[in-house]
Amino acid sequence: MLVQELEKFGVEKKYVERLEKEGIKKFYPPQEKALKKGLLEGKNLVLAVPTAAGKTLVATLAMIKSLEKGKKAIYVVPLISLANEKYEYYTKFFKERKVAISVGDFDSADPWLERYDVIVVTVEKLDSLIRHGAPWLCQTGLVVFDEVHLLNDPSRGPTLEILITKMRTMLKRAQFLFLSATIKNAEELAEWLDAILIKSDFRPTKLYEGIAYDSKIWLPEMGEIKLREDLSLEEAIAFEILKRRKQAIFFVATRRNAESLALKLASLTRKHLGRNERELLKKLGDEIENVLEIPTSQCKKEGRCVRGGVAFHHAGLLGAQKRMIEKAFKRGWLKFIVATPTLAYGVNLPAFAVIIRDARRYYPGIGSKYIPVLEYMQMVGRAGRPAYDEYGISMLTAKTEDEARVLFDRFIMGEMEEISSKLAIEPVLRMHVLALIATNFCNSERSIFSFFSKTFFAHQWGDISMIEEKVLEVIDLLREWGFLEKKRLVATDLGKRVCQLYLDPLSAHIFIEALRTSKKINDFGILHLISSVNEMKPLPSVRLGELGRIEEEIAKREEDFLIEIPEEWDLEFEDFLKSVKMAGVFEDWINEASEERILESYNITPGELRGRIEIADWLLYSLHEIALLLGMKNFLKDVRKLRVRVQKGVKEELLPLVRLRGVGRVRARKLFEAGIRRVSDLKKVPVETLAKIIGPKTAENLKEQVERKKKKDVQKTLWSGAAGI
Ligand code: ADP
Question: CB neighbours of 494 closer than 8 A, spacing ≥ 6?
Answer without folding.
Answer: 482, 483, 508, 512, 626, 629, 630
